[in-house]
Amino acid sequence: MRQSGSGRTAKLSPLSEMPNKLPTMRYCYHCATYHPESEMRLVPSKSIPRWRCIKSIEAAKKSQAKRDAFGREVSAQNSRAAASKIAAANSDRRS
Question: What is the DSSP letter of 58?
Fold first, then answer.
């Protein structure tokens, strides 16, 4: 129990009773990124169902040229993320 300024005792609620305001994140095996579960769909694969983002599912329905452009965009994002991690690791070593 905790004392409030008026001398009354205020009950603290445990964390399990607090509403979870953060969205559940799922890993998209197609674009290798985490997305909120509301932006994901569970799709069948050869062995087990996997989570895939709606953006990548919709992109797969487009022409090959547009799919290739989407793939290049995702690859560029992944390359930038990898370069950022490498730069951060190198700057930590220098410090």
Answer: H
CA distance 56 to 78: 15
pTM for this prediction: 0.52
3-13 in b/e burial notation, b at 16+ Cβ within 10 A? eeeeeeeeeee
- Tell me how far apart the alpha carbons of residues 73 and 28 are, in angstroms, rounded to a whole number: 15
Query: Cβ neighbours of residue 68 under 8 Å, at least 6 residues apart?
Result: none
Helix, strand or coil, per DSSP, at residue 19: coil
Judged by DSSP in three states, 35 sits in strand
Give, as one character, the DSSP assignment of residue 12. Answer: P
Q: What is the pLDDT of residues 43-78, one digit of tens each?
A: 998 999 999 999 989 988 999 999 899 889 989 999
